[in-house]
Amino acid sequence: MSCTERFIDAVHALPSPRPAAHAALLVSPPTPGPSQLTVREAYFAKSRAVDAAEAVGRLSASAVTACPPGVPVVLPGEVITAQTVAFLALVAASPSGRVLGAAAADATMLRVLDE
Known about the structure:
The chain is α+β, with helices and mostly antiparallel strands. It contains 5 helices and 5 strands; from the N terminus they run αααβαββαββ. It has helices at 3-13, 19-25, 39-44, 52-55, 82-93; strands at residues 47-51, 64-67, 71-74, 98-100, 109-113. A 3-stranded antiparallel beta sheet has the order 3-2-4. A two-stranded antiparallel ribbon has the order 1-5. The longest helix is centred in the last third of the chain and has 12 residues, at 82-93. It is elongated, with a radius of gyration of 20 Å.
């Protein structure tokens, strides 16, 4: 048996990935909520940190980026949706995921505008 054939056999003998690993790959970034203020207006407005569940339906005070994919998921002045909160939690819980701009690194707290 040649080295190439042994290599191919070894690759075919590898265990298949777990279904849970594939589920994370099928998640798409959420659709942004509607913008109600400009980024500048929201960024300089009075804000506070709240629990992520409490942030749903409120205006974001900061840009929150999920890595991967490395682009903002919510911008200042946009309405935070339940889909956005769920996506951020999924990214934060993944082994290689990071959430930047949230009030807590695990995305359990987000900055929202005071009402």
